[in-house]
Write a structure and sequence with these properties.
about 160 residues, mainly alpha, 6 helices
Length: about 160
């Protein structure tokens, strides 16, 4: 993971948050495409999203912070919900024989969320929770300097 700096301006931190959110949504879309292609839910892809989001947030100065860990976990959950939401729309589109964009406009959000909730039950929920914990753990992991000494954790400015 890239070196994190403590002297980054607040604008860089905001850019990091926006980048992590966009990476989470892009990861959710790729996840959905891969799951449609493989005809399985691929809940394990949440670990790929977790590593990507943690890398982006660490690169933008959010490492060793509780807020960074919570943000990373939230991004993994967001990507998971987005992927399963798109999968629910694809399932209905396949059953009706309509394009996804037509189903997206005609299908209510409550129906898509009900299908998403059903698909998230059991093992998938456990895997996503484990991936969110991994993302949080990667954010709280101490980095090593070039001399091999661990950097102390940073306190958040209030």
């Amino acid at each position: 993971m890239p070196d994190e700096t403590t002297s980054q301006p607040p604008r860089a931190h905001a850019f990091g948050i926006a980048t992590a959110l966009m990476c989470a949504l892009a990861g959710g879309a790729v996840w959905c495409l891969l799951s449609l292609y493989s005809r399985s839910e691929l809940a394990g892809f949440a670990f790929v999203v977790a590593v990507l989001v943690a890398w982006v947030l660490r690169a933008h100065g959010h490492a060793n912070r509780i807020s960074g860990a919570l943000l990373a976990a939230a991004c993994v959950v967001l990507a998971s919900l987005y992927a399963f939401y798109l999968q629910a729309i694809a399932q209905v589109a396949a059953l009706l024989g309509l394009p996804m964009r037509v189903v997206l406009r005609q299908m209510g959000a409550d129906m898509a969320l009900a299908i998403t909730r059903t698909n998230l039950a059991g093992w998938n929920l456990f895997v996503i929770a484990a991936a969110a914990a991994l993302a949080a753990g990667l954010m709280l992991r101490r980095t090593r300097t070039r001399q091999g000494k661990a950097q102390p954790p940073r306190r958040e400015a209030r």
